[in-house]
Amino acid sequence: MMRITDTVKHLIIINVILWFATYVLGQRGIDIYTVTALHFPENPNFGIWQPITSMFMHSMASPTHLLFNMLGLWMFGSALEARWGKIKFLSFYMITGVGAGLVYTLVNYYDVHTAHNILLDSGFSVTQINELFQSSYEGFLAKLNSYANAGVLSEAQAVYDYGNSFYSNAVGASGALYGILVAFGMLYPNVELMLLFLPIPIKAKYFIPGLLLLDFIGGITGGMSLFGAGNIAHFAHLGGALFGFLLMLYFKKTQFNKNRWD
């Protein structure tokens, strides 16, 4: 069993402390979740610090979100830190986590832009569209329902499906974890991995691409993935994996491939 390395241990401690702090402070009426989660840049709740702070926050509604991320960080991150050293591993972790947030935000920009275009094609003015998205989430839903009931917006469901990205937020270490998974698969392709609910050994070079394929399907369809449905930021996962892959290519072509950063 892989010994937990120092940086991985500290990252796990930070994530667990913040999860409990979110709960304890929430019971006292102090909301740190909204301040730290990654919001759409034009949303009033957005802050420039959120691409980083969101990496260390997890959903209060699902303790398993924290549990599985921390297990994955321990199992795969410790192997990378032992090989790379503390600084190189932490740099990789932070870059892939921020990269995951960047890809997630770009996808949300596409969604919100699509919603705007649907409204423009339906005859709404730019002023009306801005007023719609300046509403609270509840106001957004109420106005869409009123437009649909009045017969002035036949594609209200499509506007909701795309426009919902304006109000969505993302938290979790999953993006960085997916970067770590990609790096692990590239360095140890023949190591056999198993799912908790499917105890069949699968080599990393097959397991990890299969996991990414499930997330891609989940992101396109909005449906089920390996870890659930609905509120999963699939494209954040894929963004972390993409940045992990690009960093591994960079390491391979430079001296960073051989050097440990302790």
Characterization of the model:
The chain is mainly α and 262 residues long. The protein folds into two domains: 6-107 and 170-257, Rhomboid-like (Rhomboid-like fold), CATH 1.20.1540; 109-166, no CATH class. It has eleven helices and four strands. It has a two-stranded antiparallel sheet with strand order 1-2. β3 and β4 form a beta hairpin. The longest helix is centred in the middle third of the chain and has 36 residues, at 86-121. The protein is elongated and about 60 Å long. Mean pLDDT is 89; it is low at 224-230.
CATH class of the largest domain, please? Mainly Alpha
Low-confidence stretches: 224-230
Helix content class: 55-70%
Number of strands: 4
Q: Counting H and I runs of at least 4 residues, what is the number of helices?
A: 11
- How far the N terminus sits from the C terminus, by CA atoms, comes to 23 Å
What composes the largest sheet?
Answer: 2 strands, antiparallel
Molecular shape:
elongated
What percentage of amino acids are in beta strands?
5-15%
Please, how many domains?
2
The strand line-up of the biggest sheet is 1-2
Keywords: Hydrolase, Membrane, Protease, Transmembrane, Transmembrane helix
Main location: membrane
Protein name: Membrane associated rhomboid family serine protease
InterPro entries: Peptidase_S54_rhomboid_dom, Rhomboid-like_sf, Rhomboid_protease_S54
